[in-house]
Design goal:
Chain lengths: ~325, ~350
């Protein structure tokens, strides 16, 4: 174990996999000479050279589409999107091509590729640079969607993504890049997709989350335990597709109450899917309707005070927990 | 013999009279009769969805694909039956795919627009105009990255040249070509129409080759109805691209005799006279006439060839017709390699 930042864990995962498999390469905008906007790829061009660390033009469809072709031919490309907001430009390449080729070819090719980059609210990045995309991608069959909440998971899940056979949308939280945590040193340490886990045990309310909101939920859980004697069980989904809700169901069987926390907009969001699944499967176990904590349903404003109003905070989660306990 | 991929061009006294050219004519007959059969089967309701046939453009598929080697790869748009046939895919499996049968190339999961036969070098049939150009450029990069001498051919229509992915693919191919890392031949099948919108109405600059040159990719324009011209150019270009790892673009000027798709019956965007005028430049007839005049190919030989092609198409239809539909379990396979979805019914009973 070593203490690493979320950022370094991502870089370590990529470099270990590039050392392990010559078919792994990375491309993106300003990832080589510039060393990456968020410095995720610092040092990689120097170590691996321009054939494996490809500086691309600002052309997201080009990046994603060429990666699909490379993957079909046996390479394992990683595409760094400077931010996931820009990946919408490549929606056709990702959703109509990467996600579909295996199926419409009747399984004739693997498409082992990773599209990764930061998402989520930052500090005054405004409407086009603050969005989250898990429900957008999670809607489509044919891809995996991953959103790690810790440095260890960032590393382990990314290695699983790179070693896989399918397109993976790897959603990093820009706000977590500096976060530190223990990360296993073993170069073969991986975290499988579709394995949610209990990040904190509790008996009163189940909180379901992922990525940055998982960290927020853990902070809230400690606070509620200390201040109110409420013990929340916090479940980290890790991947949204595949989505493993078995630990959630097991937890709800114990707590009979659930809150789902996401940063993105409420309509048609990940929390809607999770909440509906809990209700469908655990209806008789529930003592209260499942509550959702989400961002406000507006484009992200620039002004700092408005931005803070648009995103979920501790008090929103506390309010939701109390609501499902009828202690509001 | 459907597959007449190039083996070696042995020098003969009159190269036009080499057996290869009769094989090519036979292949073009197969494409023509196969496509006519698909139109009939569409009208009979045996083929569903969209159907785009290649009639009139045969020389471009045959002329370029017969210049390729075994491991080369082809990407194309949704007008893709001819490329599959030229690459040597089994006509029965192609037709079965069109019929939505489990014996189809992709087990009936792709259909007409998504023919795919990796074993024969066909890496798809794609239904989003221009979307596959980036894939082909990436595949070409991979070919060099893996230190193979594979060449990638990417077919698309003039109508694909106005969408973003065209420009992104061209620019990246041009850049990678500077490092010898993009052995790709882009083939513009310039049939004068983006579906029903004529070239001068869809492209501000109608010199399509000039638009490709803007990405530092050399181009050459060719009469797409003349198989000799197409093949001569293809031989040169394939060799050059294989040697240099740099992209090249062939603009084949052609005309589709059939509608855009099977549903394009009225064709209000062009006159009957215009279609008739172009029908006089039928690529099959151009090749037949030359083989007749130079090499003495007889009417009987041509008739036998045509009958063989007609029988092959009929055999394909029969095979498709008699094949079983896909197993219902196939609904859930090939979505992803692992973590495949479970049937909804199964989830509900939990």
């Amino acid at each position: 174990m070593a203490e690493k930042s979320y950022r370094d864990a991502i870089r370590d995962a990529m470099m270990e996999e590039m050392d392990r498999d010559p078919n792994v390469l990375i491309m993106g905008e300003d990832i080589g000479v510039y060393e990456g906007t968020f410095r995720i790829t610092a040092g990689m061009l120097k170590k691996y050279g321009p054939k494996r660390v490809i500086d691309t033009p600002i052309a997201e469809a080009g990046m994603a589409g060429t990666a699909v072709g490379m993957a079909m031919f046996g390479l394992r490309p990683i595409v760094e999107m400077m931010t996931m907001n820009f990946a919408i430009v490549a929606a056709d390449q990702i959703l109509n091509h990467a996600a579909k080729v295996r199926y419409f070819s009747g399984g004739q090719v693997d498409v082992p590729m990773v599209i990764r980059g930061p998402q989520g609210a930052g500090v005054q990045l405004s409407a086009q640079h603050s969005q989250t995309f898990e429900s957008f991608y999670g809607h489509f069959p044919g891809i995996h969607v991953v959103a790690p909440a810790t440095p260890a998971d960032a590393k382990g899940l990314l290695k699983t993504a790179i070693r896989g056979k399918d397109p993976v949308i790897f959603l990093e939280s820009a706000a977590l890049y500096g976060m530190k945590g223990d990360v296993p040193d073993d170069p073969d340490f991986t975290v499988p997709f579709g394995k949610s886990h209990v990040a904190r045990e509790g008996k009163d309310v189940t909180i379901v989350s992922y990525s940055r909101m998982l960290q927020l939920s853990l902070v809230v859980a400690e606070k509620l335990a200390k201040d109110e004697g409420i013990e929340c069980e916090v479940i980290d989904l890790r991947s949204l597709r595949p989505l493993d809700l078995d630990p959630v169901y097991a937890s709800v069987q114990k707590t009979h109450r659930a809150v789902v926390v996401q940063e993105q907009w409420k309509p048609f969001g990940a929390a809607a899917e999770i909440s509906a699944s809990i209700t469908e499967t655990m209806f008789d176990e529930l003592d209260a309707p499942v509550a959702r904590v989400t961002g406000e349903d507006v484009p992200m404003p620039y002004a700092r005070n408005l931005e803070l109003l648009a995103t979920p905070h501790e008090e929103h989660v506390i309010r939701a927990v109390k609501k499902v306990m009828y202690r509001a | 013999m459907a597959n007449v991929k190039k083996e070696s061009s042995t020098a003969v006294a009159d190269p036009v009279c080499a057996p290869e050219w009769t094989d090519i004519l036979r292949q073009m007959f197969l494409i023509r009769r196969f496509e006519e059969a698909t139109e009939r089967e569409f009208r009979r309701g045996k083929i569903g969805g969209y159907l785009h046939v290649y009639i009139g453009q045969e020389a471009i598929a045959s002329g370029i694909i017969t210049a390729l080697q075994k491991d080369d790869a082809v990407f194309c748009g949704y007008r893709d039956h001819a490329q599959a046939l030229a690459l040597g895919s089994d006509p029965g499996k192609i037709m079965a795919e069109l019929f939505g049968k489990g014996t189809g190339l992709s087990k009936g999961k792709g259909g007409s627009m998504h023919l795919f036969d990796a074993e024969h070098g066909l890496y798809g049939g794609y239904g989003i105009v221009g979307g596959h150009l980036t894939l082909a450029a990436g595949a070409a990069y991979a070919a060099r990255y893996q230190e193979t001498d594979k060449v990638v051919v990417c077919y698309f229509g003039d109508g694909a040249m106005n969408i973003g992915s065209f420009h992104e693919a061209m620019n990246m191919a041009g850049l990678w070509g500077h490092q010898g890392m993009c052995p790709i031949i882009f083939v513009i099948e310039n049939n004068g129409y983006a579906m029903g919108t004529a070239l001068e109405r869809h492209s501000a600059l109608t010199d399509l080759s000039a638009r490709v040159q803007a990405y530092d990719i050399p181009t050459e324009k060719v009469d797409g109805q003349d198989i000799f011209a197409v093949r001569e150019l293809a031989d040169r270009v394939v060799k050059q691209v294989r040697e240099t790892g740099k992209p090249f673009c062939i603009e084949a000027v052609t005309y589709r005799f059939s509608g855009h798709g099977a549903a394009d019956i009225l064709q209000p965007y062009r006159s009957k006279e215009e279609v008739e005028r172009h029908r006089h430049r039928d690529p099959l007839e151009i090749l037949r006439k030359r083989l007749h005049e130079v090499c003495g190919l007889s009417d009987e030989d041509v008739k036998a060839m045509d009958e063989w092609a007609t029988a092959e198409a009929a055999r394909a239809v029969k095979f498709a017709d008699e094949s079983p539909v896909p197993d219902p379990a196939e609904l859930f396979t090939d979505v992803v390699a692992e973590h495949g979805p479970r049937p909804v019914a199964e989830t509900e009973t939990e």
